[in-house]
Automatic annotation (TrEMBL):
One of its GO terms (molecular function) is ferrous iron transmembrane transporter activity. It is found in: Cell membrane. It holds the Pfam family Cation_efflux. Coiled coil: none annotated. It is a multi-pass membrane protein. It comes from the Bacteria. The chain crosses the membrane at residues 41-63, 75-97, 109-129, 149-170, 176-194. This is Protein p34. It comes from Pseudooceanicola nanhaiensis. PANTHER family: MITOCHONDRIAL METAL TRANSPORTER 1-RELATED (PTHR43840:SF15). Gene3D superfamilies: Cation efflux protein transmembrane domain (1.20.1510.10), Cation efflux protein, cytoplasmic domain (3.30.70.1350). Residues 208-284 form the Cation efflux protein cytoplasmic domain.
Length: 301
């Protein structure tokens, strides 16, 4: 089992633990804000399961029906997470509205707060693990899960603060008001997650910093060519797809052009993990002066 899959499985177990703790906190207190926190944890477990399935699918090798691989499965998982987060937010808003109409005193607030803070501490540690693992393994599903948990940590801290204030002042209406604020925050984070995931599904180009690396590598390694142009990039899960046109002098043999392409491809794969490079070789009259990537001189020429 890969480290990415192990992390995804562990995320489910952690989510179940936190869900149990938050459900206990709600059962002890009857707080609608703590109920909203527990409902979000149900979403955490569901999204962790979705992430595990997506990671397994994304790891499948390319086949006849999917010649470019299954990398985008992780983006679908992240979109699903966003939709589930939005659904949870709407459910919490419904519960908060009902409680606003008939506020009630919270039972055993101290024990509920202690249990909630314990669950929040577990989430805080695990979201850092997920974010580090997701960035290291270049897994959109793990990064999405980590960002979701980070939002959960912030909302749980807000819930604890609101309940503490309500307990200290006797203003129990603060409990459903805090639940409503939690729901709005969750709604915002879900929208951001959907937006970022859709960018991957829509073949958004790599970041400016990665694009600069690609251009520098091509300029340095395309010795013997004239220029490179029509550079296009996209990312899908762990894979980064790079394709461009390489213009070579008319007298260049097929063997020599192939050697240049191999050199560029190898350098790009050394700099960018899991780079998938496609190079279209063109004769000199296809050059686009002023538009392409300038190539350094060939020291052997």
């Amino acid at each position: 089992m890969s480290s990415t899959l192990r992390t995804a499985v562990a995320s489910i177990l952690v989510g179940l633990l936190v869900l149990g703790l938050k459900t206990l906190a709600w059962w002890l207190t009857g707080s609608v804000a703590l109920l909203s926190d527990a409902l979000e944890s149900i979403v955490n477990v569901a999204t962790a399961v979705a992430a595990l399935i997506a990671i397994r699918v994304a790891a499948l090798p390319a086949d006849a029906n999917h010649p470019y691989g299954h990398h985008k499965a992780e983006f679908f998982s992240a979109v699903l997470e966003g939709l589930l987060i939005v659904a949870a937010a709407l459910l919490i808003l419904h519960e908060a509205w009902s409680a606003l109409r008939t506020p009630r005193v919270i039972d055993a607030p101290l024990w509920g707060l202690l249990v909630t803070l314990g669950a929040t501490a577990v989430n805080a540690v695990w979201c850092q693990v997920l974010l580090r693992a997701g960035r290291r393994e270049r897994s959109p599903a793990l990064v999405a899960d980590g960002r979701h948990l980070y939002a959960d940590v912030l909302t749980s801290a807000g819930v604890a603060a609101g309940i503490s204030l309500a307990w200290a002042t006797g203003w129990w209406i603060l409990d459903p008001l805090m639940a409503a604020l939690v729901a709005l925050n969750i709604l915002w984070s879900g929208g951001l997650l959907i937006r970022s995931s859709l960018s991957g599904l829509m073949d958004e180009a790599v970041s400016d910093s990665t694009l600069a690396v690609v251009r520098d590598v091509i300029a340095a390694e395309a010795r013997g060519a004239v220029e490179a142009h029509d550079l296009r990039t996209r990312h899908a899960g762990k894979a980064t797809f790079i394709d461009f046109h390489l213009v070579v002098p008319g007298e260049t043999s097929v063997f020599e052009a192939h050697e240049i392409c191999d050199r560029i491809e190898g350098a790009l794969q050394d700099e960018i993990e899991d780079a998938r490079v496609t190079i279209h070789v063109e004769p000199e009259h296809k050059a686009k002066p002023g538009e392409g990537i300038a190539v350094g001189p060939d020291p052997e020429a």
